[in-house]
Automatic annotation (TrEMBL):
InterPro entries: UreF (IPR002639), UreF_sf (IPR038277)
Span list, region Disordered: 1-39
Ranges in coiled-coil conformation: none
Biased segments, Polar residues type: 1-17
Record protein name field: Urease accessory protein UreF
Organism, as annotated: Phytophthora kernoviae
Pfam families found in the cross-reference section: UreF
């Protein structure tokens, strides 16, 4: 028989009804060990959740400027914008995600030096200051999240502390989101191809979220557009996956030009 346990009046019934076992009493008063941190698939679901606080919903990826310039006015033109955004993300960002993931997975390399080299390449590749600034902002948010959420229980994340110091020391201006996204996925045990799929998913998620808040489409139509874009997502992924950073390029010059105009908008609700 288990030893009797003192329970605060009024709470015993709720504990019993929920089936909560008083493990500390059965262990002689020892505190229960903390649960193992999520890795692999569980971490994957967390990273693509809309509540993941990296600031993605503060950015429209150029959609707000495109809407104000009359380039996107309805669901048909939104589909075209969505396709251009996905191809742009696949051509430009996926090689950064892939290369950063590889660097973090290869213990024989100096992770910090490799990540900083990728970061420098990314800075040079960005053709407009709005997109570059947005990438730095989301990268800073992801770095802060990784250090506060994962580092306390996963020792391998401690290397990000050194990375943050080197970024400040070498005056990089920050770490780009796509680069750090690949690193964090690797350290969490998410496979490289899964990380690349996640990045494309987050791209379409954020564009459609922005479209809803800009009243270009309603939430139901946005959900339908996302579902109907599944073949496009798969096609883009299969064509662009597993490419080195040397293959990174911008494939949507009009999108770059429009996004660069965002700072000049008279009114705006997004940061980019």
């Amino acid at each position: 028989m288990l030893p009797s346990t003192s329970v605060t009046p009024g709470r015993e019934s709720s504990c019993t009804s929920l089936g909560i076992a008083h493990s500390s009493s059965s262990m002689g008063g020892a505190s229960p060990s903390p649960p193992s941190p999520p890795t692999g698939d569980w971490a994957l679901w967390q990273m693509i959740d809309s509540l993941y606080p990296t600031g993605g919903f503060a950015h429209s990826l150029g959609l707000e400027a495109a809407a104000q310039e009359g380039l996107v006015t309805d669901s048909s033109s939104l589909r075209e914008f969505l396709s251009a955004s996905l191809h742009q993300a696949a051509n430009f960002a996926l090689p950064l995600v892939f290369s950063a993931h590889q660097a973090a997975s290869d213990a024989s390399q100096s992770l910090i030096d490799t990540v900083l080299e990728l970061n420098s390449r990314a800075t040079a590749l960005y053709s407009n200051h709005v997109a570059r600034k947005a990438s730095f902002a989301q990268g800073a948010a992801l770095l802060r999240l990784a250090l506060s959420t994962y580092a306390p229980t996963l020792p391998r994340f401690q290397t990000l502390l050194a990375l943050r110091k080197e970024i400040k020391k070498r005056k990089h201006g920050g770490v780009h989101h796509a680069v750090l996204f690949g690193v964090v996925c690797a350290l969490l045990g998410v496979e490289n191809q899964s990380a690349q799929r996640m990045y494309l998913f987050v791209t379409i998620r954020d564009v459609l979220s922005a479209a809803t808040r800009l009243n270009l489409v309603g939430p139901l139509e946005a959900t339908r557009l996302q579902f109907e874009s599944t073949p496009l997502l798969e096609k883009v992924f299969e064509e662009k996956k597993n490419r080195d950073v040397k293959d990174s390029y911008s494939s949507a010059p009009v999108l770059d030009l429009v996004q660069a105009m965002h700072d000049q908008l008279y009114t705006r609700i997004f940061n980019s």
